[in-house]
Write a structure and sequence with these properties.
ten-stranded antiparallel β-barrel, Lipocalin, DUF481, Outer membrane protein beta-barrel domain-containing protein, elongated, mainly beta
Length: 283
């Protein structure tokens, strides 16, 4: 956590310094009168994931988890990790654009259980040693319609589709299903398509410094299943040269899935993501 805050402070300090005291070299690279080239944007960088939580209750078809299993408290899972993120956006014109993004959050845990739990068909007794892995691969496809755009600001309506591939791996040794010195292995995978509705709000603080944000929301209820998701992204980007920029951003995602059938279940997860990146603009 400390290294993240140090990195963010350094990046933001650099952005503020450059925005107020642009050097002659940078002034030559990007004339104030020359529009930025941003038809194609490719962005990538390092992300620090923190405050991650995941829990499930009551046996069901998602993750194979039994009643009241918390990834951090019950299974000893960590709540922070490193990640890599890639985003891309192609603008057909001033109004229409399509974008894609991908990032993966992978968490792991080791613990001697302090309570009995049910994992799939396995009744694992307290005292068993466990190893757990939980990962979320998030793929996104989105469309932006800029209904308001000036030289300084942009507002866009942004429907999209999340494809979230979830993997859960669990191994235990101890008393399982009443048998001592037994072992259990559980590997579950599920891919959830989540359509979303979003709003994009960008604002040019200076000629080179831009505030970027987007809000995405999803809620769907079909038969006995319901799901919801909210994601917020906000950050600052500084255009060092005409075709190159650097920035830092914060992302918060909260999602949940619920089933109310005979084998009802509830799964909730959330995490924070701090993103330090470089951006290439072309055309």
């Amino acid at each position: 956590m400390d290294r993240y805050f140090r990195t963010m402070v350094y990046i933001l300090a650099l952005i503020i310094l450059l925005s107020g005291y642009g050097s002659p070299v940078l002034a030559e690279e990007t004339s104030p009168d020359a529009p930025f080239s941003d038809k194609l944007m490719i962005r990538g960088g390092w992300a620090y994931v923190f405050g991650a939580t995941a829990n499930a209750s009551v046996a069901g078809p998602v993750l194979g988890l039994g009643a009241a299993v918390d990834f951090t408290n019950t299974l000893g899972g960590n709540s922070s990790t490193d990640a890599f993120r890639i985003d891309g956006l192609y603008r057909f014109n001033d109004r229409h654009a399509v974008g894609v993004s991908w990032y993966r959050v992978g968490l792991s845990g080791n613990k001697a259980l302090t309570q009995d739990i049910q994992i799939g068909d396995n009744a694992v007794s307290a005292g068993a040693t466990t190893q757990t892995g939980l990962s979320f691969n998030t793929y996104r496809l989105l469309y932006n319609y800029s209904f308001y755009r000036t030289d300084k600001a942009e507002l866009a309506f942004s429907p999209g589709l999340y494809m979230m591939k979830t993997n859960f791996n669990f191994a235990a040794q101890g008393t399982i299903n009443g048998v001592t010195r037994n072992t259990a292995l559980v590997n579950e995978q599920i891919t959830l398509p989540l359509p979303s509705v979003g709003l994009v709000a960008n604002y040019d603080i200076t000629k080179k410094l831009q505030f970027q944000s987007r809000f995405d929301f999803f809620y769907l209820s079909i038969n006995s299943y319901s799901g919801s998701m909210f994601e917020f992204y906000g950050g600052l980007e500084y255009r060092l040269f005409k075709h190159f920029a650097m920035g830092a951003a914060y992302d918060r995602l909260i999602a949940g899935l619920r089933g109310d059938g005979d084998k009802g279940f509830t799964v909730n997860f959330s995490y924070n993501l701090a993103y330090v990146y470089a951006t290439l603009y072309a055309f």
